[in-house]
Specification:
Blueprint (H helix, E strand, L loop, with lengths): L2 H16 L1 H15 L14 E8 L8 H14 L6 E5 L3 E6 L6 E6 L4 E7 L3 H10 L8 H29 L5 H21 L1
Antiparallel strand pairs: 1-5, 2-3, 3-4, 4-5
Helix pairs in contact: 1-5, 2-4
Length: 198
C-alpha cells in the first residue's frame, strides 16, 4: 500500500471516529423530527415551564431589531442571566429566549400589565437533541457559543472530506467499481426524483 492510499484510509477512519457524537446526535434528532407522533409526549409539555420570578417592570421597548437586542441584553444583565439569547416582540409582549440545551429560560415582558416574568423549562432528552440539531451561528453569546458554531463548521468540512476519501478508496478497488456506480447513481436518482416531484 503506497503512502497516498494509507493517508486516505487513515483520514477516512479517524474522521469517522471524530464524527461519532455529531453524526449520532443529528441522526437521532432527525429521527424524532421525522416521527414526531411517536415522541409526542417528549415535546411541548404544557406543564414543563416553572416560574422563577415575576417583577413589576415598565420600559419603552425599541422597535428596531438591533436596538431591541441591546435592550434585551440589558434586561438579562440586570437580572443576572448571562449568555446567548434570541428576542422577538408583538404588540402585547416581548419574549426573550435564553439559549441553552438543558433547561432553557424565557423572560416575557408584558407591556400592558407592566410585568416581567422569568420561567425555566424542564427539558426532555428529545427536546435537548432538537436544540443541538438547530443550534447555529456565531456572535450569540460568547466563546462557548462560538465554539459550538466553529465545531459545526468543522463537522461540515469533515463530512465532505469523509465522502471524498471514501470515493478515493472505492476507486482504488476495481472489484467494487460496478457496485459502487450502482450505489452512487441510485442515491443520486432518488434524491433528484424527490427534489423535482415534491
Amino acid at each position: 500500500m503506497n503512502n497516498t492510499n494509507l493517508i486516505f484510509r487513515r483520514v477516512h477512519l479517524y474522521l469517522g471516529m471524530l464524527l461519532i457524537p455529531w453524526v449520532l446526535i443529528y441522526a437521532l434528532s432527525t429521527f424524532t423530527f421525522n416521527h414526531r407522533d411517536w415522541f409526542r409526549g417528549q415535546f411541548n409539555q404544557p406543564d414543563s415551564w416553572t416560574q422563577l420570578w415575576k417583577k413589576e417592570f415598565k420600559a419603552d421597548v425599541p422597535r428596531q431589531q438591533p436596538k431591541l437586542k441591546e435592550w434585551a441584553r440589558g434586561v438579562l444583565d440586570e437580572n443576572g442571566i448571562k449568555g446567548g439569547f434570541n428576542v422577538r416582540q408583538n404588540p402585547q409582549s416581548v419574549l426573550i429566549n435564553f439559549i441553552q440545551f438543558r433547561n432553557p429560560i424565557r423572560v416575557t415582558y408584558r407591556k400592558n400589565s407592566g410585568q416581567l416574568l422569568a420561567e425555566q423549562k424542564r427539558t426532555t432528552l428529545a427536546e435537548m437533541m432538537a436544540r443541538m440539531h438547530v443550534r447555529h451561528g456565531y456572535g450569540r453569546g460568547g466563546v462557548l457559543y462560538n465554539s459550538w458554531a466553529f465545531v459545526v463548521d468543522l463537522v461540515c468540512f469533515a463530512i465532505i472530506a469523509w465522502i471524498a476519501t471514501g470515493l478515493y478508496m472505492w476507486w482504488k478497488l476495481p472489484a467494487t467499481r460496478k457496485a459502487g456506480w450502482v450505489a452512487i447513481l441510485s442515491g443520486l436518482a432518488t434524491f433528484l426524483l424527490l427534489v423535482f416531484t415534491i
